[in-house]
Amino acid sequence: MRKDAFLKTVLAAAFVAFVLWGGLPLFRHRHHDVPIVKGPGVTAVRRLSEYSPGLKGTPGDTFIYVLQGREPGGKALLMGDTHSNEPEGMLSAIIVVENGIVEKGTLYVIPVFNNSGSRNTRPGDGYPLYFDVATDWGQRRFRFGNRDASPLDQWPDPDVYIHYPERQLLSYIDIRNTNRTWPGRANGPLMEKVTFGAMELMRREKIDLAIDVHGAETMFPVTNCIVAPESSVKIATLASLTVKAKEGFESHVERSPVGFRGLSHREIGDHGPALPFLLEAPIPFLDQPTGPKTTKLLLDGKDPFLLSLSKKKKLFVPYDESGWPLEKRVGQNLSVTLEIFRQFSKKAADRAIAVSGVPRYADLVKNGVGHFLADPAKTPAGGVVMN
User: Fold this and answer.
1) How high is the pLDDT of residue 19?
2) Where are the domains of the chain?
3) What mean pLDDT value characterizes the chain?
4) What is the pLDDT of residues 179-220, one digit of tens each?
């Protein structure tokens, strides 16, 4: 009897030790904060909970960086990390925060829009928990998250997600997807509170342009593009044609579908003052028929299986031995963003948005992403925000 009790105790202790051993890396990832340096153009840092009080003290709250211009003008909102397994959006936003100076107008930047998703992962797909970007001064580490918010922060999922306010039936997991919960509501689930906060920001601050930066699979037809509704499509088209002619890369225009609800490029324009745009850069890491989901694949976008599929014309973007590296994806996002600002300013001179100091596509391809990332360790006290 004593032997049985002893054996059970040992097995129970081993099980607890195994759970702790497996859970510790996930715990550390969830509590790992990423430093973002307040660049020379940052004039204020706010919280999204200022616009959606229900977020205060929750993992859904996140930072908003305000870059107020030297001259009056229009206002824009730039969002990254809506899907936290698409890091080109977050890195594009961080580069703007750490380098950008607004000459005219005001720019609001949310580098980590889905804070909960950025602290989540997908272990069943072998996702890495972090990735490191080489800089001029060393390595800078970032969390690698998941497409959806963590179930630790919003649970339970319904059998079917009923979109508010259109009541369209969506997948159950879309209730944790911040590109399915727009326009949100103040008393809804956590991710609806996140998108409601962004809508309130746009309404209160009278935002003219809203840009939501993403990445998409090379096998997905809506990739390497600007998604825009009717109100934004002219500016999107002009931006697309200009970057192709002047900078040599393609980012075609896709129309926002009227019948598919919850998407930023649809709901922002339908429920607020801003002209919405969603940017998609190709990210091979997200494709299913690839090799292991390594940080190398995430950074350089090189995969032999995709190369084989490209030769069979199964991809929706050009793909060769050079892959789709991070610097191309981030550079493309930044050039398109700046070109949208420029095209809007030509159309509405009294609401112009002019930003300097932000690198464009050629700068990123030549120098790499890390060249434009600041060193938090060399930043004066108070100059770093832990995200």
Assistant:
1) 67
2) 1-31, 36-386
3) 96
4) 999 999 999 999 999 999 999 999 999 999 999 999 999 999
Summarize pLDDT for 261-298 with one digit per residue, the tens.
Answer: 999 999 999 999 999 999 999 999 999 999 999 999 99
pTM of this structure: 0.95
Helix (H, G, I), strand (E, B) or coil at 79: strand
Q: Is the pLDDT of residue 233 over 80?
A: yes
Which of 366, 374, 372, 292 has the alpha carbon at shortest distance from 325?
A: 366
> In this structure, what token pair is assigned to residue 233?
């499509």
Task: Give me the residues paired with residue 212 across strands.
Answer: 79, 278
Rounded to an integer, what distance in angstroms lies between the CA atom of residue 203 and that of residue 218?
A: 35
CA distance 178 to 159: 18
Grouping H, G, I as helix, E, B as strand and the rest as coil, residue 303 is coil
Give the CA angle between residues 145, 236, 251 to the nearest 5°. Answer: 60
Using the CB atoms, write b or e for 361-370: b if 16+ within 10 Å: bebbbeebbb
CATH architecture for residues 36-386? 3-Layer(aba) Sandwich (3.40)
Nearest residue to 278 via CA among 192, 219, 340: 340
Q: How far is CA 146 from CA 130, 227, 296, 338, in A?
A: 12, 22, 18, 27
**Which residues make beta-bridge pairs with 75?**
106
Question: d(Cα 131, Cα 141) in Å, to the nearest integer?
Answer: 6
Higher pLDDT residue, 138 or 7? 138
For residue 29 the two structure tokens come to 């990832």
